[in-house]
Amino acid sequence: YLALSYTWGGADESLKNSTYQSNIHQRLQPYGLRGILNPKVLPQVYQDALLVAKGLGYRYIWIDAFCIIQDNDTDIEAQITNMGYVYQNADMTIAAGGGAGSEVPLFVKRQVSARPCLVKATVNGQPRYVIVSRPMDDTTSVLDSRLWVFQEQILSRRTVQFGPHYTTWRCSKMNAIESLPLNVPEESIPTEEALQLDDSIKKLQVWIKDTASHRLTAQLDFTHEFASAWYSAVCNYTNRNWSNRKDQIGAVMGVASVIATRSGWRHLAGLWREDLPYGLAWFKCNQPYANREKGTGYTDDLEHEANCAPSWSWAARANGPVVFLPRAGFQSYLVEVGETDWEWPAPAQKGIANGRLTLKGQLLQAYVQPVPFNTVALQPNSEGKWKAQLVDSVPNPVLVGEVYLDAPMTSSSPETICCLLLGTLHKGYRYWGVGLALRIVEKDGRQYFERAGLVGLFNPVAGQTKIVDIY
Asked: Which stretches does DSSP call E strand in 248-356?
C-alpha cells in the first residue's frame, strides 16, 4: 500500500469527506467509498494521490482523513500510536509539497520555460548530454514546517514529493530530483533546505534503519549516537507549526513507539528513561522560529498546560525552539531517577497527577532575580530566551549562577526557588553545575514541585540529598 503525507490547511474540505462514527459502517460495506470518490466532491490532493496509486498499480492507499474515525477519541489515540508503523510499512509515501490544504493539487502548474531538459553537447571531443535546469529554489517545502509530518518524514522508507518547482525522491539509499534524476548519492546533492531534510532528522533515520536488523526481543544499549540524533531531531521538531498544543506529544508518539519497541527503552513524554538526567537539561532557546510561517497567528503561549505534558518535559514549553546542552561536555550525573507514572494518552481522572517523576539528588535553595539589563535583546543567540541571575541570599546577594527560565519573571523582586543538581558541564576551562530550577506549588491541599527552568551554577555546590516529586 501507499501512504499520503499532506497538510489539511483550513481543514474544512478535508473534514467534509472524512470518516465519522455516523458513516463508518456504510464505508465498511462493499463499494462503501464510492460516494466520496466522485471528483466533484473529493478534494484535489486526494484525487491526484489516487491517480498516482492507480498508475503505479496499487489497490490500497492510507489517507488519515478516511482511515481514522475523526470523532472517536479511542480510535484517534490508537491510530496516533500506530502512525509510525503505517508510514514505516508503506511501500512508498506520496508527499504533497506544493502548498497547504487538501484543495491544493498534488501536481502544481509550473512555468514552462523553467522545466529541466536534456541538451546534447560535446565535452573534450566526446558527445555528452547536459541537464539544463533552473537554479534550485531555496524555499522549504510546506511539509518541512508541519508538526505532524515530522514522523512521516523520518519513518517513510521511500518518499516521492511533488513540489511547486520539482519532484524529489528520497529513500535510504539515495536522493534524486528532476535535474539530477540518476542514482545520485545523497552527499552529491546540494544541501538547499528545499531538497533535503534537516541533518538531525537524517541522523535519526539512519539510526532507525541501522537497527532494523536487530531482533525486536533484543534490548539495545542506549548509545550516545542515538541520543545525539534524537535530541537534535527534537530541536527541529520544536521549530515546526502546530495548531493544537496537545499535539506536541501525540505527533511524536509514532516514531517513539517504533524506537521503544525496537530498543526496549522507555519513552517518557519526549525523553528516554535510560538517559533522563541529560534529557531533562533542555531550555527555551532565544533563536527565531526557523520554520514558522509568517502570518499564521502562532503566539508565544507562556502558560504551562498540564494536559499537554508534565512540566519536566520539553513538550510543556515547546511553543518555540527548545535546545539541549552540549552532549560532549555533560558528565558526572548527580541524580537518581525513581518512579514515574506518566502515561499517554493521559487518563482524564489523573489530571495534573499524570507525569509524576521522582528524582533523588542534591537540593539547594537559592533566589532568582532579573538580569540588570536585557542581554537577550542586545544579541539574539543560542542562550536561554528568558535569562535571570541566581543569587545565594536576599538581601546582600552574591551571584552564584544563572537561570534559563521556562517563562519570563512576573515580578522584579527576587523569587525563592529550589535547585536540583543533575550533573556537571565542562565548558571551556570551567566546570558548571547543571540543575533544574524548581518551584513549590500547592494544589488540592498538597505541595509538589514544578519545573521553572534550567540552572547553571558557576561552581558545583554540595547540597542536602532529598527525594522530590516533579509534575
From this structure: 267-268, 271-272, 282-284, 322-324, 330-331, 335-340
Highest-pLDDT range among 274-283, 303-312, 328-337? 274-283
| CA 354 – CA 416 distance, rounded (Å) | 26
Q: Are 362 and 336 in contact (CB under 8 A)?
A: no
What's the gap between Cα 386 and its chain centre?
22
Q: What's the 3-state SS for 167-184? A: EEEEECCCEEECCECCCC
Please write the tens of the pLDDT for every residue from 8-49: 866 555 567 889 999 999 888 887 777 777 777 788 899 999
Nearest-CA neighbor of 391 among 355, 364, 352? 364
Length of the chain equals 471
**Nearest to 119, CA basis, from 176, 204, 179, 60:** 179
Given a contact cutoff of 8 angstroms between Cβ atoms, the answer to whether 149 and 94 are in contact is no
Own/partner pairs, 185-193, CB within 8 angstroms, 24+ separation: 190/136, 192/136, 192/137, 192/138, 193/138, 193/139, 193/140, 193/144
Q: Can you tell me the distance from the alpha carbon of 207 to that of 304, in angstroms, rounded to the nearest whole number? A: 33
Pairing state between β 322-324 and 357-370? unpaired
DSSP annotation of 192: -
Three-state DSSP class for residue 40:
coil
The pLDDT assigned to 14 comes to: 55
In 3-state terms, what secondary structure has residue 203?
helix
pLDDT above 70 as % of the chain: 76
In this structure, the dihedral spanned by the alpha carbons of residues 215, 218, 219 and 224, taken in order and rounded to 10 degrees, is -50
Q: What is the pLDDT of residues 78-112, one digit of tens each?
A: 888 788 889 999 999 999 988 777 778 888 887 76
3-class secondary structure, 299: coil
Answer whether residue 243 shows pLDDT above 50: yes
Helices (H), 190-348: 199-210, 224-237, 247-250, 253-263, 276-279
- pLDDT, tens digit, 9 for 90 and up, residues 133-144: 665 554 457 787
Query: What is the model's pTM?
Result: 0.79
Report the 10 Å Cβ neighbour count for 195.
22
